[in-house]
Amino acid sequence: MLTRKQSELLTYIRDRLAESGVSPSFEEMKDALALKSKSGVHRLISALEERGFIRRLPNRARALEIVKMPDSVAGLSGQPRAPVTPPLAANDSVVELPLHGRIAAGMPIEALEGQTTLPVPAALLGPGEHYALEVAGDSMVEEGILDGDYALIRKTDVAREGEIVVALINEEEATLKTYRREGQMVRLDPANRLYDPQRYRPDQVRIQGRLAGLLRRY
Fold this sequence. Notes:
Blueprint: H1 4-20, H2 26-32, H3 38-50, E1 54-56, E2 64-66, E3 94-104, E4 117-121, E5 130-136, E6 150-154, E7 164-169, E8 173-182, E9 185-189, E10 198-200, E11 205-215
Parallel strand pairs: 3-5
Antiparallel strand pairs: 1-2, 3-4, 5-6, 6-11, 7-8, 7-11, 8-9, 9-10
């Protein structure tokens, strides 16, 4: 039997996966459940994993799969009880994404344009145009985004509160951070307590995409 918070989190993860095909971030889960810290999310995730309701997909950061739903939760929002993450099969089609250099998950660095490509299973991508960036730095580690990961980015020039985005600063430097509005300012939040948020005027920040998925090197 699940606790109320465990059931709420399981339902939230299921609905987000059904909507976008991407697991919600720990920050999004914390906000959705009105928890005080992401450590509470970690405990709930671990409890759900131990009870066999979810599993973490190997070599894919921020990737959760719903294994089953309890009878008290199944059927809510009209969703099935089956796993809702996009299936990855051995014969899954592959998309060659443009690989545009490295992007900072610490202090901003230049996002380099490049001619190389990165093969990505099509099942990891939703609709829209995508590109890939190699992550440099450790400021997003609490979201499971590690140095050397490949960030799969869906092109967009708008961002919603709490989304992880590629932000171009002053038309010179790009960084991967969580997007927030703070009064008249844009705040770019790291996911590492060793780093401070970065604040800019809206005219200093141009959104170049939002995080759609991650690939991890072996």
